[in-house]
Specification:
Elements (H helix, E strand, L loop, with lengths): L2 H31 L15 E7 L10 H11 L6 E7 L2 E7 L4 E7 L4 E7 L3 H10 L8 H29 L5 H21 L1
Antiparallel strand pairs: 1-5, 2-3, 3-4, 4-5
Helix pairs in contact: 1-3, 1-4
Amino acid sequence: MTFQHFNRRLHLYLAMFLLPWFIIYGVSSAPFSHPTWFRNAGEGRIQWLPRFDKPYAAEFAPGTEARVAAAQVLRENGLDGAYGANWVNPRQLNIFMFSFLSATRLSYHLDQKRLVAEDRPSEITPILTGIHARGGFEQPFVMNDLWGVVVDIVCIGFLLWIATGIYMWWHLPSTRVWGWVALIGGAALFAIFLVTL
């Protein structure tokens, strides 16, 4: 098998392997550019449903990081899942628990000793945007780390797919001119947006 033959096969099978990822990243980009297309019955924002509003008191050391404080709140209230957290101010900690299909937001009011939780119903917009934007290795769950590894592999696959395509193009002289037009045109368009926006 020659290198050119190997390169063509690699390009072909990469395209087949990456196809679901191209589709999901393409489709999930639409809610970012056209959010009104995906709002349920014309609603302008996500509707959150109350889960509980209960007394709760927690003690944090001064300067406790938001994720550390959030982990304590979740553990002490029997809640588990991927999450992000931030201090709104020294008296309020916000926690956002999420999966692809659902999410829960919690607000812990330290001065009121009160914990409020609301659930987001499954809706197409947050599912798509969540799939598009999710990554990283900060969550304490194996499946989250596995997702991050797979996303890294897919990104490497994208770069390999590009490289194998450029190699094939360069070895087909009949496509050389239009290839340059496409390559330079795409790069110029990207550069214009990069500089002007």
